[in-house]
Amino acid sequence: MSDKNVETKPLETQQAPRMPRAIWIVGIVSFFSNTASVVITAFSPEFIINILGGTPAAMGYIRGLSEALSYLMKMASGVISDWLGKRKILMLFGYLCAAFAKPMFAFCNGLGLYTAAQLLERITNGLRDTPRDALIADCSPKELKGASYGIRQSCAFLGSMVGSLIAFFALWYFGTSVLTLRMVYLVAAFPILVAVLLIYFGISEPKNIVSLKEKRKGFPIKVADMKQLGSHFWYYLFVCFIFMCSRYSESFLVYRAQSLGLDVKYAPLVLAVMYLFNSPTSRIVGNWSDKHDRKLFLAFGFCMMLASCIILALAHDYWLVIVGAAVYGIHYGATQGTFFAMVSDYSPPQIKGTSIGLFNLICCLGMSISNILTGEFWKHYGAEWTFIVISAISFVAALSIMFVKKPNKKMKEAIQ
């Protein structure tokens, strides 16, 4: 038999890209960080309203102001990380500061000190988050970008669920006294210290970001950089702003359940349910978004936010609030990692931190408006109308996201 008719296969076969080790370590870091952070969200309504004598409006202002400063710091840290050509050092410093911020809540005796502790905790969050998300973009193969952010978000939400369960069992076993709440705040610093050690020993600066430092000489933010991002990117940020005007703090989710009769010691379970649906949704959507149009998953997430608001508006007991929390968790899992993957899709390598920082700045404006208006609407018109207004904003965002376009050919060449 002649060999001429036999097809020969190429000697080299294309191997599927592997997930870098740094992505998994960042995921584990997020797990421990969120395990500690969730107790602040879970206990905010009880601490602010019932212990410190505040109101839902005061909670809205505190959360709104703290989120605003957090996102402003995310903008600044992204630009600085591009300019310095360093991600790890900013992450390390941010997580270390967070370890000192958590115990401050244990010593609060008034709204002033609580607000200061909340501001410090969120500022340190902003300092570390953008360099961390930019590091994921630096390390991820382009075929696994959505999956990489999905891993990070999934681990973070899993940590939040574990933290919620730990907080619940602490209250269930030790009671709901002020002393117990303060002790939980103190213990919350230890998981952050584990995260610091993981970053220090397990993560190295990405080689490509160090080499790109030469392109960032001069003033950190340049007009040319902003133009390079393109009109599609700016429209995408506009849609994100609309949606963020509807994303209220999870503290209001907990407060809604408590206002319908849920005992404070069960409040962490509301967040546990939310994170139970967050984590797998993030992982699944992260993988799928690498194969399909990402905006479809964002539209789905926006619709889930709308559905959760309708459920919360119509809720007449706390069991319906728990159902609303599950739907809210699906929304969060479908959107959060996808947001960052899309930002990375539009961003040239030398300004990934800056573009993620710009996204966080838009989130800052939107979420500040959302939290303040949520508190004021709740105070003057009640929970039902508050969630109806939020659902309307989510609907507008869901329609607007369908007109978002992918990066054009010129932009793709610059990114690659």
Give me the secondary-structure topology.
Layout: H1 21-51, H2 56-84, H3 88-101, H4 111-139, H5 145-174, H6 178-187, H7 189-202, H8 207-211, H9 223-229, H10 231-244, H11 250-259, H12 267-289, H13 294-314, H14 318-346, H15 352-401, H16 409-415
Which key phrases capture this entry?
about 425 residues; mainly alpha; about 80% helix; about 0% strand; disordered N terminus
Q: Describe it for me?
A:
The chain is an all-alpha fold. It has helices spanning 21-51, 56-84, 88-101, 111-139, 145-174, 178-187, 189-202, 207-211, 223-229, 231-244, 250-259, 267-289, 294-314, 318-346, 352-401, 409-415. Helix 2 runs parallel beside helix 4 (111-139). It is globular and about 55 Å long. It starts with 20 loop residues before the first helix and ends with a helix. The model is unreliable at 1-13 (pLDDT under 50).
Largest sheet report: none
- Global mean pLDDT: 81
Q: Are there runs of 5+ residues with pLDDT below 50, and where?
A: 1-13
What fraction of the residues are assigned to beta strands by DSSP? under 5%
Helical amount among residues, as a percent range? over 70%
The rounded Rg comes to 22 Å
- The H-and-E topology, N to C, reads as HHHHHHHHHHHHHHHH
Number of strands: 0
Shape: globular
The class by helix and strand makeup works out as mainly alpha
Cα end-to-end separation: 47 Å
Would you kindly provide a brief summary of this structure?
Helix content is 78%, strand content 0%. With 416 residues, it is an all-alpha fold.
